[in-house]
Write a structure and sequence with these properties.
Layout (H helix, E strand, L loop, with lengths): L1 E9 L10 E10 L2 E10 L8 H7 L3 H4 L5 H12 L3 E4 L2 H14 L10 E3 H8 L7 H7 L12 H15 L7 H22 L12 H12 L11
Parallel strand pairs: 1-4, 4-5
Antiparallel strand pairs: 1-2, 2-3
Helix pairs in contact: 5-7
Length: 230
Amino acid sequence: MREIIFDTETTGLDPASGDRLVEIGCIELFNRVPTGRTFHAYYNPQRSMPAAAEAVHGLSDVFLRDKPLFSAGVEELLDFLEDSHLVAHNARFDFGFLNHELRLCGLPEVGMHRMIDTVAIARQLHPGAKHSLDALCSRYGIDRSHRIKHGALLDAELLAQLYIELTGGRQIGLGLAQQEEKDTVQVELAAIVAVRPVRPARVFQASAVELERHAAFVATLEKPLWLEDA
């Protein structure tokens, strides 16, 4: 099963008020295992960057000035996403901005049936706990020491590790592997038993000397229990 972990950085919180997507990072998973394939792009939002947003991700007007428009790279992004499920943290936020940009390009939106929200998964697993990416990375021992500011690809990489933990961890399939190993051992033992030669039972019989010595020993016993009823 192919899934895409993705994260976005934006100029603000609400695309309906004019905020735009400025960065997207994607990680490909196949059967919950990263394949090494990624997609990463910056986009010129065609508007100024608010100071509050820049403080979060560090993307300035000067940095984004020469970056392409979203419309210029949208086909490459869609080719990478294909029709896979898309995993994001607080996914409605990321889906909202992605679909807003697609609408501006006159393209179909990404269906919400493809959305997997790791916040929703975390709330089910850990009700009442903190569900931020930082808090969950700490809970699962995921190293985020290199995360100075938010970054779409970096956060997608962290989220990929978190998603694997939330959905079974690195031990996914371990039970099956153990069963396969057990079955293999049983087959090997059966094969050993099948080729083992059958030997006739040995007959052990005391000699006359041994019987005489045994009788002499019994005679020395005082009131042996087995002779009480005799």
